[in-house]
Amino acid sequence: MPEPLNIAEATGRLGILTPGMGAVASTAYAGVIAARKGLAAPIGSLTQMAHIRLGARGEGRNPLIREFVPLAQLDDLVFGGWDPISPNALEAARTAGVLEESDIAPISSELEGVVAMSAVFDQRWVKRLDGVRVKTGENMFDLAEQLIADIERFRSENGCDRLVMVWCGSTEAYQEATAVHETVESFEAGMRANDENISPSQLYAYAAMVSGVPFANGAPNLSADLPCMVELAARQGVPYTGKDFKTGQTLMKTILAPGFKARMLGMRGWYSTNILGNRDGEVLDDPENFKTKEVSKLGVLDTILQPEVYPELYGNIDHVVRINYYPPRGDNKEGWDAIDIFGWMGYPMQIKVDFLCRDSILAAPIVLDLALFLDLAQRAGQSGNQEWLSFYWKSPHTDGVTPAEHDIFIQQTKLKNTLREWMGEQPVTHSEAG
Ligand SMILES: NC(=O)c1ccc[n+]([C@@H]2O[C@H](COP(=O)([O-])OP(=O)(O)OC[C@H]3O[C@@H](n4cnc5c(N)ncnc54)[C@H](O)[C@@H]3O)[C@@H](O)[C@H]2O)c1
Questions:
Q1: Based on the domain organization, do 344 and 207 belong to the same domain?
Q2: Which helix (H) or strand (E) holds 209?
């Protein structure tokens, strides 16, 4: 049996801070508040609904994850966030149009009470949005210090014992790491010099880590996956994870592709197109912002199918991803996949998937799980990249050497085995069923 980790109890209140209070964040808050009142079940959340098998199957030990590991309770969560447009979570939920008014009304006062703090925002990174409540400062270092002050004020005003931060802000324009991102020292000098390669999400990640707050990045842009943040997280002993919530089409892709591969069926192409009409869709209509998303979405098939191991099955795949902004659809995205596979003697077959999904309904439980698991990781004395949380991401952070794992079933095993090991139980190497 592995030695259990010494995990501190989840006593007191846990604050969940979201830079970005749009569709995903407001839906996440609303679902938790509704669950607390017994108005809705937290469907899609592993921390609330999943069981975990312990020992051999015959032992019949299968507790809920939340009864097995010491997680914060829903009643102990407090929400806060920053947004340059949404004034509070109630208006955010109404603007997003994800939830029906009949679901919002019974929790409207709680949502209205989550008032957005002024954001660190720069239109250079999100051209389609025009921020109204935006911080000003001498330079970026000053802005980061304002975020750190916000975090401390939130902590004391809400009597929080612990905090976590989950980026739910818009996807920023595409960028690659530059010299300014090399070390904490170069990053801090860059903030003082207003280096144009530093984006707002990086200032939030910096502020979180300096404050000892675990950080998750729900969008595909660079923020914690930078050498300077890796160094800072190690120095501060802070866990982090990312990036880009795995919902919708990519979720389907990482569910289906492992199945084709398990049966050694070949693949010639996968064409994915999406139409969506929410603010996220509007932001992603800009080619620079779409590029960030495209890179994140294209990565998944290669690691699942291993074309270098199976060149005759997966060595020649046309993988195309498109997103089109189409206002009538609102948050209810439609994702079409045309999948060209081939079987025995090379005969081609086609599969069409038409997923009429609700993006924020799929993303909201991920926000909750990440917050609770990151808080657990911190209480378990873990820091740095939490690879076991790859399950939730389109582009899981890696150590730069081992490639990311995208197969959702392998990711699930890794997640549950990490919990088993932390609690001193044997890992399960086959069959998660039961
Ligand atoms: N919904 C999903 O399934 C899903 C999946 C993967 C990733 N994501 C990502 O999650 C993020 C949130 O998605 P959403 O549907 O809620 O989008 P949204 O447009 O409804 O909300 C994003 C909010 O972030 C705010 N914002 C922008 N820049 C900010 C800044 N610098 N600081 C603070 N707030 C800022 C915007 O004003 C907006 O209210 C997006 O980046 C999206 O790409 C969403």
A1: no
A2: helix 200-210
In the reported structure, the alpha carbon of residue 19 is separated from the centroid of ligand 1 by a whole-number distance in angstroms of: 9
Pocket lining: 46 vs ligand 1, CB cutoff 6 Å: no
What span, in angstroms and rounded, lies between the C-alpha atoms of 321 and 291?
10
CA of 38 to the centre of ligand 1 (A): 28
User: Are 282 and 390 found together in one domain?
Assistant: no
| Residue whose CB lies within 8 A of the most ligand 1 atoms, among 118, 170, 362, for a mutation test | 170
Please give the residue range of the domain that contains residue 405: 13-245+361-422
Does the beta carbon of 28 lie inside 6 Å of ligand 1? no
Q: How many structural domains compose the chain?
A: 2
Pocket flag, ligand 1, residue 335 (CB < 6 Å): no
Q: Are residues 206 and 261 in the same domain?
A: no
> CA-CA distance, 156 to 99, in Å (whole number)?
31
Q: Indicate if 300 and 368 belong to the same structural domain.
A: no
Is pTM, for the whole model, over 0.90? yes
Residue 120 Cα, ligand 1 centroid: separation in angstroms?
Answer: 14
- With a 6 Å cutoff on the Cβ, whether 323 touches ligand 1 is no
Q: Is residue 197 part of a domain?
A: yes
- Ligand 1 close to Cβ of residue 147 (< 6 A): no
- Is residue 67 within 8 A of residue 75, CB to CB? The reply is no
Per-position pLDDT tens, the chain of length 434? 789 999 999 999 999 999 999 999 999 999 999 999 999 999 999 999 999 999 988 899 999 999 999 999 999 999 999 999 999 999 999 999 999 999 999 999 999 999 999 999 999 999 888 889 999 999 999 999 999 999 999 999 999 999 999 999 999 999 999 999 999 999 999 999 999 999 999 999 999 999 999 999 999 999 999 999 999 999 999 999 999 999 988 899 999 999 999 999 999 999 999 898 877 778 877 888 878 777 777 778 988 999 999 999 999 999 999 888 999 887 788 999 999 999 999 999 999 999 999 989 999 999 999 999 999 999 999 999 999 999 999 999 998 888 899 999 999 999 999 999 999 999 987 655 43
Spatial CB neighbours of 333, under 8 Å, sequence gap ≥ 6: 248, 274, 275, 276, 281, 356, 357, 358, 359
Beta carbon of 15 within 6 Å of any ligand 1 atom: no
Give CA–CA dist 154/148, Å, rounded: 10
Residue 7 inside a domain? The answer is no
Gap from CA of 281 to ligand 1 centroid (Å): 10
Whether 18 lines ligand 1, by a CB cut-off of 6 Å, is: no
Q: For ligand 1, is residue 240 a contact (CB within 6 Å)?
A: no
Burial grade of 218 (CB within 10 A; 0-12, 13-18, 19 or more): buried
What are φ and ψ of residue 61, in 5° steps? -95, 115
